[in-house]
Amino acid sequence: MGRSNQPAAVQQLRLGEIRMRDPFFLETVPGEFVLFGTSDQNVWGGPATGFDCYTSKDLDHWDGPIAAFRPPPGFWADIQYWAPEVHALEGRFFMFATFADSTRARPRGVTVLVSDQPVGPYQPWSDGPVTPANEPCLDGTLHIDDDSTRWLVYSRGTEGTSDSPGIADGEMYALRLSQDLRTGVGEPILLFAASSAGWTRPLRFPKGVEPPKDLHLAKDPLFTDGPFLLRSNEGTLLMLWSSHGEAGYAMGIAESENGTITGPWIQHDSPLWSSNGGHGMVLRASTGRDYLAFHWPNNTPDERVQLTEVHISGASVRIL
Q1: Tens of pLDDT, residue by residue, the chain (320 residues)
Q2: For 113, which of 26, 39, 88, 170 is 20 to 30 Å away at the CA?
Q3: CB neighbours (10 Å) of residue 260?
Q4: Which residues fall within 8 angstroms of residue 198, CB to CB, at 6 or more apart?
Q5: Using alpha carbons only, what angle is made at residue 156 by residues 170 and 18, rounded to the nearest 5 degrees?
Q6: What are phi and psi of 38, to 5 degrees?
Q7: Rounded distance, CA 191 to CA 265, Å?
Q8: Do 276 and 298 meet the contact criterion of CB atoms below 8 Å apart?
Q9: How far is it, in rounded angstroms, from Cα 224 to Cα 242?
């Protein structure tokens, strides 16, 4: 797969025709939407191409793909471009995405990109990953407190090295960010481990996917990924996150007991989605409707974007 900066021919597709993992929807102005996600054909290997996006006015018919990000010369990562999410802040658009380096010279991490337009092109904003330089990290999501403090919530990866095997129990962290979103501030705060949820089960890779031998995974690891935070109208702070359950990839809900990012966090007993799909987010549309977005199934290359209306009340997210 080459690194062409030329986008593919733009066409109109129905949502169910778009192959994508880790979908993220942004409503730029009322009634106009952009869809981002993991869009490379070879999501596990490489070399990576970048991120594509799609635009829509009805959430069903989409124009694309549009080249949202293509790596500039000298960019630090060349494989596994995953899970872009975009936030509009102070007149610009900031993308948080996961990248990896095939040489493993530095661990997988979350880098911040920026653009003046929602569809890009996005350019590097942070100097490499804002996540810790000594740990593999993935799936960063932005949370802004009422006092404007900016946080990155992310997963610590379970992979290790030949000298340091990967952890067996994946972890979710919060890291304070500088106001300009270029760097992390202070030490990450552990929010919870995968084993804190009763529904999690050991990792199983999708059918047809073999983990690289140099990942050095612990035996039967539990993992965390795909965090997304939302606050209900009643003020409850919730986190969607994914792991493996009884029926494969699954998505659960954690709830902050005191309504703050640092928690403590308690896990809901049952997953929100239990069968071979996950990495979700909630689109709170200007129409007043709330939608859960995620990819299903988890098997490559069959992944498709799922969008379904949900009802959110207090600590409850219920699929309609």
Answers
A1: 333 444 567 899 999 999 999 999 999 999 999 999 999 998 988 899 999 999 999 999 999 999 999 999 999 999 999 999 999 999 999 999 999 999 988 999 999 999 999 999 999 999 999 999 999 999 999 999 999 999 999 999 888 766 667 899 999 999 999 999 999 999 999 999 999 999 999 987 766 677 666 677 778 889 999 999 999 999 999 999 999 999 999 999 999 999 999 999 999 999 999 999 999 999 999 999 999 999 999 999 999 999 999 999 999 999 99
A2: 170
A3: 13
A4: 267, 269
A5: 95
A6: -75, 115
A7: 7
A8: yes
A9: 6
Instruction: For residue 248, count other CB atoms closer than 10 A to its CB.
Output: 18
Find the angle CA(253)-CA(248)-CA(250) to the nearest 5 degrees: 15
Q: What is the pTM of this model?
A: 0.94
Return the structure tokens found at 263: 């928690």
Which among 272, 273, 279, 303 has a CA at the least distance from the CA of 209? Answer: 303
**Nearest to residue 170, comparing CAs of 200, 198, 130, 140?**
200
Residue with tokens 């939302």: 230
Looking at the structure, give the CATH architecture of the domain made up of residues 11-319.
5 Propeller (2.115)
Domain chopping of the chain, boundaries: 11-319
Q: Which amino acid is at 62?
A: W
Report residue 188 as tokens: 């990450």
Q: Are β-strands 265-267 and 278-284 bridged in parallel, bridged antiparallel, or unpaired?
A: unpaired
Q: Closest by alpha carbon to 291, among 300, 299, 282?
A: 282
Give yes or no for a contact between 114 and 72, defined as CB atoms under 8 angstroms apart: no
Peptide bond just before 47 cis, omega within 30 deg = yes
> 157-170 burial, b if ≥16 CB within 10 A, otherwise e?
bbbbeeeeebbbbb
